[in-house]
Write a structure and sequence with these properties.
Order of helices and strands: HHHEEEHHEEEHHHHEEHHEEHHHHHH
Strand order of the largest sheet: 3-4-7
Number of helices: 17
Largest sheet: 3 strands, antiparallel
Distance between the termini: 24 Å
Helix content: 40-55%
Structural class: mainly alpha
Strand content: 5-15%
Length: 438
């Protein structure tokens, strides 16, 4: 596919953009809304390539809307799964590791593009949540937290107005309630039943800079004050019965978080993030492998098992390439090349191009599937194509680039027909047509 398919994808996003509340969807309802972080990463590349201010505006407005809304955990940080409504207010309260990683990456890249500290703060808050609540002591990261506690979705995250005033006091509680839109009668409607709830989902309707102006305060002063109040609420919330944590360590999702942390280490010039990425990568490479050096899928309670899928190799390849760029430790480049070799030997479709989901020497299936659609998680073929291109640039090995191009060509007609559904592999197309430097 040529540059025209990138323009086609942009035209689709422009057509489906929600001009009132940001994000994308089908008018007039525009709900539910999913984060779709790789869509925004693609639009940033469109802006970089074409100078389109519209592309940049769609990214910045959408990422800000997600951070300000109820889909984002305003008290404990991190993003919930998706918004059930158009306004980004009422989430499905589940928290997934891949959403944290991909949304962090989109915000890091928005910070690189604009220099706006809002996006850096959002990424750093996501990492605060992940490293505080999801990280295993050995460095890798658990995969999810449930939406329910005590048999009720979202109960852990919502608040009564009186509760806020009791915890924070009348004066500070009133300030917090005003800024975070906490109402005595509740502030949300359950989407499926349309029942008006008496509890509140904390959310913002303006950025901190705008609120500070309204409150006649400096932004730093306001944020410092609100951080103190938020910390009190977080401490109180910790006493509640928590949603169940899924503490499996999954190779593919850890690969995404390694990429996010490494990218933050580069963009923010913050070595601590690079160190955390290294800890996670070292654990995966040491623990989630068999005696032949092949990756395994999952780890829990000392037990690593299940044969890895394409996504495990592709996502870890992504993490290792970013980690090499962040650390310049040669071992991560060596490991990236080793994973690419296994992809080539055991997952490649020699006849038609691209990669199968399962290995050629794995469990015998009626059909070995190939997937390229970039849904909530980007496909293994998309991630492999982009990062094989990057690996080719770093190593000078043109075979990696040929594999990437064959992968893109294998799905060329699908991509051309519905370009916007393939935003990660279109980043690979953009990479091919862009001017790169090594």
């Amino acid at each position: 596919p040529g540059v025209d398919v990138l323009d086609k994808a942009f035209a689709y996003f422009e057509e489906t953009f929600d001009g009132d509340f940001a994000g994308f969807g089908a008018a007039p309802r525009f709900a539910p809304k999913f984060p779709g972080p790789h869509d925004y990463s693609l639009l940033l590349r469109h802006w970089k390539r074409t100078g389109s201010e519209k592309a940049l505006d769609m990214v910045t407005r959408s990422l800000k809307a997600m951070r300000l809304g109820g889909m984002y955990d305003q008290v404990g940080f991190g993003t919930h799964r998706y918004s059930t409504d158009r306004e980004w207010l009422v989430p499905h309260f589940e928290k997934m590791l891949y959403d944290q990683a991909l949304l962090a990456i989109a915000n890091i890249e928005a910070y690189q593009a604009t220099g706006d500290s809002f996006f850096r703060s959002t990424a750093e808050e996501i990492f605060t949540y992940v490293l505080r609540d999801m990280q295993d002591p050995r460095g890798a990261v658990d995969c999810a937290e449930d939406a329910d506690s005590e048999g009720e979705e979202g109960k852990f995250y919502v608040w009564n107005h009186a509760e806020i005033l009791e915890i924070l006091g009348e004066g500070e509680g009133t300030l917090f309630a005003r800024i975070y839109n906490i109402l005595p009668g509740g502030n949300w409607v359950e989407e499926s039943s349309r029942e008006e709830m008496t509890t509140n989902i904390p959310h913002l309707k303006k950025t901190f800079a705008e609120i500070a102006k309204d409150e006649n305060l400096g932004e730093v002063e306001l944020r410092t004050r609100l951080d103190g109040l938020r910390a009190k609420l977080f401490t109180e919330r910790e006493k509640r019965i928590h949603p169940l944590k899924d503490d499996k360590i999954l190779t593919d999702w850890n690969g995404l978080m390694i990429a996010a942390l490494a990218k933050a280490g580069i963009a923010f010039n913050e070595p601590s993030y690079t160190k955390e990425a290294q800890r996670a990568a070292d654990f995966i490479l040491k623990t989630l492998r068999n005696d032949k050096g092949r990756l395994l899928k999952r780890y829990r309670d000392g037990d690593a098992g299940l044969e890895a899928f394409l996504e495990d190799y592709a996502y870890m390849l992504w993490g290792l390439v970013d980690l090499y760029e962040a650390s310049f430790e040669p071992k991560y480049l060596v490991e990236a090349k080793a994973l690419a070799k296994i992809l080539h030997e055991h997952y490649r479709d020699e006849e038609n191009g691209g990669f199968f989901t399962t290995a050629d020497d794995g469990e015998k299936l009626i059909v070995r599937t190939k997937e390229v659609y970039d849904g909530a998680q980007p496909s293994g073929n998309s991630v492999a194509a982009l990062n094989l291109l990057r690996l080719s640039r770093l190593t000078g090995d043109t075979e990696f680039e040929q594999q990437a191009k064959k992968t893109i060509q294998a799905f060329g007609s699908q991509i051309s027909e519905r370009a916007a559904g393939y935003s990660l592999i279109l980043q690979a197309v953009d990479f091919i047509h862009a001017s790169t430097r090594e």
